[in-house]
Design goal:
With about 450 residues, this protein is an alpha/beta fold. The protein is built from 19 helices and 15 strands. The N and C termini lie far apart (about 50 Å). The structure holds pyridoxal-5'-phosphate. Pyridoxal-5'-phosphate binds next to α6, α13 and α17.
């Protein structure tokens, strides 16, 4: 019988994370202090991050050891399965081999605990009592609440307004693991009060609120669920396991596809393969899928910008739609972010990674096709990557190629069923991305050296 699931043993959980920074082509562009315009150093980060996180953020070591305590927690759900999508292949009648790495088996239902557990551990080591964070879809907030519970920390979450309303059970999850959750923009912070007009909220606004709370309290730190180097680093357990499981299958991918919000699951999946391209001359293609309503990589400007809406973070070199661009309320809450991980943006800028924008109705149609063949109901975020994967498989069919496709299935959609219900009822709209609105946001980019 042909194999469907490629499973690794617990002993094959990676022992180190892959740090791609030393392999990135060209001189790395440092984050900048917005006040001085000088490179931001560890001192800019100590008010909100512990030293262990800062060391990882700036590390130039190609491999960073995973602490044993973190690997112990990873054992609760890792290694995650690699599944050959044989039924989807048959349904598409494609010669392509489609594999998906399924992160939805984690307790929170996505890849997010891979970094939440590492961050909670490093903060606990530093004697921190409480972590505060933002969450879009609720995936990161619930993952951090779980991680804080496991390491005995308190957890406070600012949840993007539209997701807070759409996903009440994500809130209940955060509370079940002991965290507290507020609708953002809230009246608890200056940042929230200043953005009260943006009722639906955005990740950028929620980040501003969380950073403000963390910066004001001594025993409290901030934890970010994507974008920064250390978060992408933690997620590389995904790609390393995928390489080992594909080896079992006797395959190597021609193309790797994932969804991009801030970039962490996609980075975690592809960076070990990107390193093999750069070091060993492999020729795998990489394709990031983002929402057409928030098309950072495909239509953004490559510039220094703030990571949050209010302008409290260092300036980061990235493709951006403008830090105060508030994306339309698409159901893929985890993809509503104005920027992307600087390391991933550098790869796109250098032509090493491609990107595509997907409309939300096309993403849901693809998700339903996937669920009909493979059973798993995907989150709205990876649904974007599924659409791109199906397009790759159909292109292989047209050219008659036996293309090997690896898809990052970053999470399940069990708490997103109201979005599926809206799709079934024909009520899901393709929210327009307005050039005029974006231009306004770009006009307000902070002054910084040009990088394009
Ligand atoms: C299931 C899932 N996939 C993807 C994302 C996007 O985030 P990132 O690009 O950091 O992986 C999120 C964010 O909340 C998510 O919940």
């Amino acid at each position: 019988m042909a194999t469907t699931k490629y499973l690794l043993d617990e002993s094959q959980i990676p022992t180190s994370w892959v740090n791609l920074l030393p392999d990135l082509p060209g001189e790395p562009l440092p984050p900048l202090n917005p006040g001085t315009g000088e490179p931001a150093g560890p001192d800019d980060l100590t008010p909100i991050f512990p030293i262990g996180v800062i060391e990882q953020e700036v590390s130039t070591e190609p491999d960073v050891e995973i602490p044993e305590e973190v690997r112990e927690v990873y054992k609760l759900w890792r290694p995650t399965p690699l599944i050959r999508a044989r039924r989807l292949e048959r349904e598409l009648d494609t010669p392509a081999h489609i594999y998906y790495k399924y992160e939805g088996v984690s307790p929170a239902g996505s890849h997010k605990p891979n970094s939440a557990v590492a961050q909670a551990y490093l903060n606990k080591q530093a004697g921190v009592k409480k972590l505060v964070t933002e969450t879009g879809a609720g995936q990161w907030g619930s993952a951090l609440s779980l991680a804080c519970r496991l390491f005995g920390l308190e957890c406070e979450v600012f949840m993007v307004g539209v997701s807070y309303d759409q996903k009440p059970y994500r809130r209940a999850m955060i509370e079940t693991w002991g965290g507290t959750v507020h609708r953002s923009p809230s009246d608890r912070t200056d940042a929230g009060r200043s953005q009260a007009a943006h009722e639906s909220g955005s990740l950028g606004i929620a980040i501003s609120e969380a950073v403000e709370v963390a910066a004001k309290a001594d025993d409290t730190n901030y934890a970010l669920g994507s974008v920064l180097n250390h978060v992408c680093l933690h997620q590389t357990v995904i790609g390393q396991e995928a390489i080992a499981a594909l080896e079992q299958a006797g395959e190597y991918p021609d193309v790797v596809v994932g969804c991009v919000g801030g970039g962490s699951n996609f980075a975690g999946l592809i960076y070990p393969f990107v390193r093999a391209n750069l070091r060993e001359g492999k020729t795998t293609r990489f394709l990031g899928a983002e929402p057409a309503a928030c098309p950072t990589l495909t239509r953004g400007t490559y510039a220094y910008d703030f990571g949050d809406t209010v302008g409290m973070t260092p300036l980061m070199p990235m493709y951006t739609l403008g830090h105060d661009f508030v994306p339309p309320p698409v159901h893929a809450g985890g993809l509503r972010y104005h920027g992307d991980a600087p390391s991933l943006c550098a790869l796109v800028h250098n032509g090493l990674v491609e990107a595509t924008a997907v409309k939300q109705t096309d993403a849901f149609a693809a998700a339903i096709r996937f669920a009909s063949a493979e059973g798993i109901i995907p989150g709205p975020e990876p649904a974007h990557a599924i659409k791109a994967t199906i397009d790759e498989a159909l292109a292989a069919k047209h050219s008659g190629e036996e293309r090997v496709i690896l898809l990052g299935l970053s999470g399940h959609g069990h708490f997103d069923m109201s979005a599926y219900a809206a799709y079934h009822a024909g009520e899901l709209e393709d929210l327009e991305f307005s050039d005029a609105e974006m231009q306004e946001a770009l006009d307000r980019l902070p002054s910084a050296p040009s990088i394009a």
